[in-house]
Design a protein that fits this description.
By secondary structure, this protein is mainly alpha-helical. The protein is built from 17 helices and five strands.
């Protein structure tokens, strides 16, 4: 082909133009395809991002739903617990028949009970008895120390004539029916009469006998009346305004403010405060103490805007209870109360005690009643696993009851615990380790297991020393004095009033633990304390007073000799 040929050149040019046109069309198509691919890729990326966002949203919704479910469960548990507290029984007793049902359910499911429960509980054991003798109903015996008044009744003369022979009937015995009567306490005015003497010749002066020391200088009340007021308020939980009304019914008008003044003087340094300080010293010198606290309302608080204070109780051996007031729940107040103490401290697991234990001079002893209470709540909420654990605690407390009923001392109680309680505790905690993994962490049983494991060393410390108790229930019982009182008197007027209340609560509650009549004890102590030597103040504490009374009590007369039977 020759390019010089015009026709050929024209054909080539037309062919070249067509090729260029097809190339342009191809490039346009390729660009369109590329743009479409890019759009598709962008759309896929957007879809992936949307899918990731949806997945993240779904995960967030699932997490929120789980959190809401946990919150609902927790709130439901609290609601159930509050409902049981307000409307249900306060007792933590578990019906043994519940444990029996647990055994039967495990047998049907072919599951073995925990190793510390080798046999099912006795289904014939009545739940109210709790393996103890049921109290018998009936008329109580009238105490023999009460005075007797004899009233004799004779038949009429007509009834004393024999219906058969007409002769007079002769007495041969008597039938005695006892009736218990009450005579209300009465006010008595004691007139202290001091005769005046003077020389009729010289008229130089007047001589009189000294006036006996009065509980309150120039005050109206005698020791017995002060003792009655203190016992009524802090022993019987009677508010002073109500007590004023009671006295008014007897025809004696004593205002509430006057009664408050008497309480203030009685708890002051001239009367019962030194006895309280000696009682506190005796408590803090004991090698083993228990402590607990509760709240009260305080109107004129030292902290602006605050209306709550705390009442602490520290107990040593029976008859030694010391109450103390603290403005807040902060740990520094219990630190001040127990300053310098060395020994065992049994209490709950409140955080305020942690710094005390870190110093090393005070050894922590846990309260197994607090640990058990968590499983009681779980059982009441329908969690069957808690019943196995409660069965183990039932056996532990049965061992403690055995030691108490058989009169074991601390050494023999320690041996009994090592023989029976220690293996049971070991098996119980092994079961708790095994059970924890099978439970929801939010369940009440799981929370109780976590508490028991977290405080295991303190909860098991009672095994190491026979002087230690298994729980802190004695301190909790002592605080019932305050709990019952605040229902009636509702608040303390000031921190000073709360401190005076702790002085008088300490003496009254200690008397109750020792079986002493608080009114009789307080009357005697208030009479004696103005002239009692300070070095012998320990004799006026409830325990010291009781020991002194026993020493001064005359010995019982010997039984009359029984004549020998004739041979």
């Amino acid at each position: 082909m020759h390019l010089s040929d015009p026709s050929k050149r024209s054909d080539l040019q037309r062919e070249l133009v067509a090729l260029r046109q097809r190339l342009a069309e191809t490039e346009v198509a390729l660009a369109a395809k590329t743009a479409e691919a890019a759009a598709n890729a962008a759309e896929a990326a957007a879809n992936a991002a949307e899918a990731a966002a949806n997945a993240a949203e779904a995960a967030a919704n699932a997490a929120e739903a789980a959190a809401n479910a946990a919150t609902i469960e927790r709130l439901q548990q609290r609601l159930d617990a509050l409902s049981r507290r307000v409307f249900g029984r306060r007792s933590e007793h578990i019906d043994p028949r519940q444990l029996l049902l647990n055994f039967e359910g495990a047998a049907e499911a072919q599951e073995a009970p925990p190793p510390f429960l080798s046999e099912a509980p006795d289904e014939e054991t009545p739940p109210a008895q709790d393996e103890r003798k049921k109290k018998r109903n009936g008329r109580a015996q009238i105490p023999g120390h009460l005075p007797r008044e004899r009233k004799e009744y004779d038949p009429s003369p007509e009834e004393l004539t024999c219906a058969c022979c007409g002769r007079a009937q002769q007495p041969f015995g008597e039938e005695v029916t006892q009736q218990l009567e009450f005579r209300p306490a009465s006010f008595v005015v004691i007139e202290h009469v001091r005769k005046k003497y003077s020389c009729k010749k010289c008229h130089s002066g007047v001589t009189t006998a000294p006036l006996p020391a009065a509980p309150i200088e120039r005050g109206l009340p005698g020791p017995g009346l002060l003792a009655e007021v203190i016992t009524r308020k802090y022993g019987d939980h009677t508010p002073l305004n109500r007590l004023s009304g009671i006295f008014a019914r007897e025809g004696v008008s004593i205002s509430k403010q006057t009664l408050c003044d008497w309480i203030r003087a009685s708890a002051g340094p001239l009367l019962l405060k030194p006895v309280y300080e000696e009682l506190r010293r005796a408590v803090l010198s004991s090698p083993v103490i228990q402590a607990d606290e509760t709240g009260i309302r305080v109107l004129r608080h030292t902290i602006p805007g605050r209306r709550r204070g705390q009442i602490w109780v520290v107990g040593a051996k029976p008859g030694e209870l010391c109450y103390a007031y603290a403005p807040t729940k902060e740990g520094k107040w219990i630190h001040q109360l127990l300053a310098g103490y060395q020994g065992f401290l049994q209490a709950d697991a409140a955080g305020g005690f942690d710094q005390l234990y870190k110093a090393g001079s005070i050894v922590e002893v846990g309260c197994n009643a607090h640990a058990r209470r968590r499983f009681v709540n779980a059982a009441h909420a329908g969690e069957a696993a808690a019943l196995w654990i409660l069965a183990a605690y039932k056996k532990l407390y049965a061992i403690e009851r055995e030691a108490r009923e058989e009169g074991h001392d601390s050494a023999s109680r320690h041996c009994l615990r090592q023989e029976k309680s220690k293996p049971l505790i070991k098996e119980l905690y092994a079961y708790l380790d095994e059970l924890e993994g099978a439970l929801r962490p939010s369940s009440l049983t799981a929370q109780g297991i976590q508490y028991a494991k977290r405080h295991r060393e303190a909860l098991c410390r009672f095994l190491s020393d026979g002087r230690l108790e298994i729980d802190n229930n004695r301190a909790e019982r002592a605080l019932r004095q305050v709990a019952l009182g605040r229902v009636n008197w509702t608040f303390a007027g000031s921190p000073a009033g709360a401190e005076r209340a702790t002085v008088l609560y300490s003496l009254v509650a200690s008397c109750k633990e020792l079986g002493i009549n608080p009114a009789a004890y307080l009357k005697d102590v208030i009479e004696r304390i103005p002239t009692h030597p300070a070095r012998l103040i320990a004799e006026l504490t409830p325990r010291g007073w009781l020991e002194k009374q026993r020493e001064q009590r005359p010995p019982d007369p010997p039984d009359p000799a029984i004549p020998a039977a004739p041979s």
